[in-house]
Amino acid sequence: MAVLLLFLFLAISTVSTAADDAFIGVNIGTDISDMPSPTQVVALLKAQNIRHVRLYDADRSMLLALANSGIEVTVSVPNDQLLGIGQSNATAANWVARNVIAHVPATNITAIAVGSEVLTALPNAAPVLVSALKFIQSALVASNLDRQIKVSTPHASSIILDSFPPSQAFFNSSWKPVMVPLLKFLQSTGSYLMLNVYPYYDYMQSNGVIPLDYALFRPLPPNKEAVDANTLLHYINVFDAIVDAAYFAMSDLNFTNIPIVVTESGWPSKGNSREPDATVENANTYNSNLIRHVQNNTGTPKHPGIAVSTYIYELYNEDLRPGSVSEKNWGLFNSNGEPVYKLHLTGAGTVLANDTTNQTFCVAKEGANPKMLQAALDWACGPGKVECSPLLQGQPCYEPDNVVAHATYAFNAYYQKMAKSPGTCDFKGVATVTTTDPSHGSCIFPGSGGKNGTFINGTSLAPSSNSTTSGCASQYIDSGGSLMSVVIIGVLAMSAVFL
Question: Are 264 and 8 in contact (CB under 8 A)?
Fold first, then answer.
């Protein structure tokens, strides 16, 4: 599968560099009907602390926008240019001059991906693939950029046969005339094997043999772990098994010191009726666990502690991509910058930290006493000094017109106003904290980035501590008269009553 984007650390030189920290990058695809401008893309990358990206080409405007950003960039030779570059040293030198030399050092280009899944997607170009790598490398050497910029080519994991148990894996023998000189090139230049790893497809094609939890990095009981009978290594996720299969396949050709960088991995958030596991929940689970796994530097069972840097596929959903519904729904964000889902990344580092469980909301507790909710709602919109005007009839958050929905809005507004301080989401037991954004339709809750936000900390909509009473407290008095406004204000005048 050839596609666009994500951030990446490309400074690994050998498999023995266990001290190097792995990084998470993002692929940036552009098959989007309303593609953000390059400056908007870079703004999103910066807001999300994305420090490594892979482009599927070497777009000049994108490279100019990335200048002086500090973001490490992998540029690509598109497949349709590969034949020309692989047959002409001069063509390769011109490509490097135009797409690399013209932009460094302002743009921090650290790698060149020559083609994408060439052996499986463009087999007629396979005979010139290694020549293309060598010609590109020669142009970098001539410009003294070969130490800064590594050259490689991304492979589909399907070129590895008999991938489980990993110790039995080997490369498709028909590609041996290409793989041996390719691996010699990577070894001699201190580069790495680029590999696209998609547990989603392995799971889908296994017809139930691969458990969903195994594909999603979910914890498995010891008796459910996959064991390589030859090495006795235990595998608790598909990702590690595929990476180790690649290590063993290289060993089968007597190459044991070439590191691996995963250039694409992800999970679709939406699919058709034949793809029931392409869901928001599963995409969130996979990518959250993948990021945590990579940034913990756990490595794989074959190479524990060895960095396996990975680019997520991908930054944006691509509505113009051909194929099934899932092909259009691999993105972390929609084209307007709105997250497709908020990753669960507490304790996983700073990358994408603004879309993690650090973004919390206060909502009405399920099954809470309606009269208690009403009383707490009136306090929040009165003495609590929450701006409740969005709850008035005709305003964005009026519907649904019930005490649970209105209380949820008011509780969260107070919680955000108080900077999520401990104890500010209790309201005498009728409120609780959640990581799910309760915003709906045009009703954007305080603490949410909104439809067009970049989700920086998520508190820009919270009312300030100087907010005054909205004057709408009386609207939320129980119509039965059992909670009189005078009584409510008198009883709730002290802010600690419900907190």
Answer: no
How is the chain split into domains, by residue range? 24-355, 361-491
Taking CA 48 as the corner, what is the angle to CA 45 and CA 52, rounded to the nearest 5 degrees? 50
Annotated catalytic, 366? no
Residues 6+ apart with CB under 8 A from 420: 360
For residue 56, which phi and psi values (nearest 5 degrees)?
-90, 5
CB crowding 392-425: b at 16 or more within 10 Å, else e: eeeebbeeeeebbbbbbbbbbbbbbbbebeeebb
Are 378 and 324 a contacting pair, CB within 8 Å?
A: no
For the chain, give me the number of helices (H) and strands (E)? 14, 15
pTM (predicted TM-score): 0.70
Q: Which two tokens stand for residue 189?
A: 């230049």
Query: What confidence score (pLDDT) does residue 129 get?
Result: 97
Q: From the candidates 117, 314, 318, 387, which is the catalytic residue?
A: 117
Pairwise CA distance, residues 152 & 114, whole Å:
6
What letters, b where the CB count within 10 A reaches 16 and e where it falls short, cover 177-210? ebbeebbebbeebebbbbbbbbbbbbbbeeeeeb
Q: How far apart are CA 197 and CA 160, in angstroms?
A: 11
For residue range 262-304, list pLDDT tens digits in order. 999 999 999 999 999 999 999 999 999 999 899 888 899 999 9
The CATH classification number of 24-355 equals: 3.20.20.80
Alpha-carbon distance of 401 to 475, in angstroms, equals 12
Catalytic site residue from 72, 225, 264, 338 = 264
CA atoms of 59 and 311, how far apart (whole Å) = 19
pLDDT band at 6 (very low <50, low <70, confident <90, very high): very low
Residue type, 38: P
Residue 275 annotated in active site: no
Contact by Cβ (8 Å): 448, 437: yes
Tokens of 495: 């802010």
Q: What share of the chain is helix, strand, coil (3-state, %, to 5)?
A: 35, 15, 50
Residue 169: per-residue pLDDT: 95
Phi, psi (degrees; rounded to nearest 5) at 264:
-150, 135
